[in-house]
């Protein structure tokens, strides 16, 4: 499953350092696409072009303050993820809370970076997240899995499973989806892969693959979705360089 991707990544790595301005334009495009699609999946109504305008610091008429903040916050969370990668910081629970804190900053400061203290359901899903009193234990188990068992996996498989397990725990009141996609890309980027975009047009496929993973422990559909998007991003890089 990963042979073709590894070959493309090797070609990309052989061309490093990449052209400065080409890399800058790809990064800016991915930041926009990532922010737009991740927010759109969660119901944000800003279009791609409106998202671009908000990222440039301009207010869009007729749109809520929350929708504007979701764009600004997501960009800040991406910058934080890039900083983690640049500094080669080890993965930890503190990072997860910091990412979430940025996602919900000024939207819900009471619960930004704070585990939920209430029971929740995931709309449209069969899977039921654990009770609030179990979240701390489940998150510690996630970190332990990451530090041990997951290290034997291919990085793309590890990134996909990190997303699956995190969303299954659903540790926060709100913002779990955006945070999970940031964690997915954090793991890919730490291993030298470019970030991917889970596109809003694939939202149903994405949700169905996640629910299947949570209710049947069959992760292949979700991993294949991630593989598809990694291929798409690698093809973009290789085409432009």
What does this structure look like?
The protein is mainly α. It has helices spanning 3-14, 20-41, 48-55, 65-87, 93-103, 135-147, 155-169, 176-190, 203-216, 220-240. Helix 6 runs antiparallel to helix 7 and helix 9 packs across helix 10 (220-240). The longest helix has 23 residues, at 65-87. It is globular.
Key words describing this protein structure:
241 residues; mainly alpha; 10 helices; 64% helix; globular
What's a concise summary of this model?
The protein contains ten helices and no strands.
Which SSEs are present, and which pair or pack?
Layout (H helix, E strand, L loop, with lengths): L2 H12 L5 H22 L6 H8 L9 H23 L5 H11 L31 H13 L7 H15 L6 H15 L12 H14 L3 H21 L1
Helix pairs in contact: 1-10, 2-3, 2-4, 4-5, 4-8, 5-8, 6-7, 7-8, 7-10, 9-10
Kindly identify the CATH topology.
Fic-like fold
Classify the helix fraction into a percent range. 55-70%
What is the helix/strand order?
HHHHHHHHHH
| Average residue pLDDT | 96
- What's the architecture in CATH terms? Orthogonal Bundle
């Amino acid at each position: 499953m990963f042979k073709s991707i590894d070959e493309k990544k090797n070609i990309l790595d052989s061309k490093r350092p990449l052209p400065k301005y080409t890399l800058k334009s790809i990064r800016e495009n991915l930041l926009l696409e990532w922010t737009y699609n991740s927010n759109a999946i969660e119901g944000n109504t800003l279009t791609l072009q409106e998202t671009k305008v908000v990222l440039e610091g301009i207010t869009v008429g007729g749109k809520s303050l929350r929708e504007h903040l979701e764009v600004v916050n997501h960009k800040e969370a991406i910058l934080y993820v890039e900083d983690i990668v640049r500094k080669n910081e080890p993965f930890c629970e503190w990072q997860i809370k910091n990412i979430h804190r940025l996602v919900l900053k000024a939207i819900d400061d009471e619960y930004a970076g704070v585990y939920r203290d209430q029971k929740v359901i995931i709309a449209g899903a069969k899977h039921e997240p654990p009770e609030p009193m179990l979240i701390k234990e489940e998150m510690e188990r996630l970190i332990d899995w990451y530090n041990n068992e997951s290290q034997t996996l291919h990085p793309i498989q590890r990134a996909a499973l990190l997303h699956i397990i995190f969303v299954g725990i659903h540790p926060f009141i709100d913002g779990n989806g955006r945070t999970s996609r940031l964690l997915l890309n954090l793991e890919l980027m730490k291993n030298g892969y470019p970030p991917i975009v889970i596109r809003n047009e694939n939202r149903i496929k994405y949700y169905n693959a996640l629910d299947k993973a949570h209710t049947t422990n069959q992760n292949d559909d979700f991993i294949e979705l991630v593989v598809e998007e990694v291929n798409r991003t690698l093809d973009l890089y290789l085409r432009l360089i």
